[in-house]
Amino acid sequence: MCESMWPDASKNLYHYLQNTGEPQDINVDNMLTDLPDLPVDAQADAEWMASQAVADAQKSDISGPVTYPFNTEWTPEYAEQNEDQNWFLATGGYQYCTDGTVTVYPPTDSNAEWTYSYDYRVHVADRYNWDGNKSTTINGITVTDKELQELHRAGLAKEYDLVGESSVQHGTGP
């Protein structure tokens, strides 16, 4: 039942209990669909980078399109329980960043404005571990981080890294 209700949370817990410690992929495209803040924040980062690229191109007095690569810094995010139970249980807190390119187009005879297009990917990273001081109730049963942490300490489960990247996202402006 949990696997169909919370596929990513079930997959991550199962991997933890496999006791390998090997990194596991995280489905960033699904996170962008399911979580309300991540796509908005990642797109805002890309648009901010686009505005910086336009400002630089205007200062450089370019006469044709110019492309700028970009990388944003890692930023903390949190999948709240009331937003999406699957991602809350799958990762809780995680880090994200974006990388991509912005192409800036100077004004033309048919368009007096500077314009841009951008392509970017969202990268997510997290450590699947247990803090020891939190708990959550799942189907009427309270599970504490301390209990799950003890599985690792007893050698029955192993913490690991979650990593992934989205498909390419696109946008234009102004």
Draw up the topology in text:
Layout: H1 2-5, H2 7-18, E1 24-25, H3 28-34, H4 37-60, E2 66-71, E3 75-78, H5 85-90, E4 93-105, E5 115-128, E6 135-138, E7 141-144, H6 145-153, E8 160-165, E9 169-173
Parallel strand pairs: 1-8
Antiparallel strand pairs: 2-4, 3-4, 4-5, 5-8, 5-9, 6-7
Report on this structure.
- With 174 residues, this protein is α+β, with helices and mostly antiparallel strands.
- It is 36% helix and 33% strand.
- The protein has six helices and nine strands.
- The strands form two sheets. Strands 1, 2, 3, 4, 5, 8 and 9 form a seven-stranded mixed sheet that branches. A two-stranded antiparallel sheet has the order 6-7.
- A hairpin with a 2-residue loop joins strand 6 and strand 7 (141-144).
- The longest helix is centred in the N-terminal third of the chain and has 24 residues, at 37-60.
- The radius of gyration is 21 Å and the shape is elongated.
- The mean pLDDT is 93.
Structural class: alpha+beta
Shape: elongated
Mean pLDDT: 93
Q: How many helices?
A: 6
Low-confidence stretches: none
SSE run: HHEHHEEHEEEEHEE
Largest sheet: 7 strands, mixed
Would you report the number of β strands? 9
Radius of gyration equals 21 Å
How far is the N terminus from the C terminus? 46 Å
Strand content: 25-35%
Helix content: 25-40%
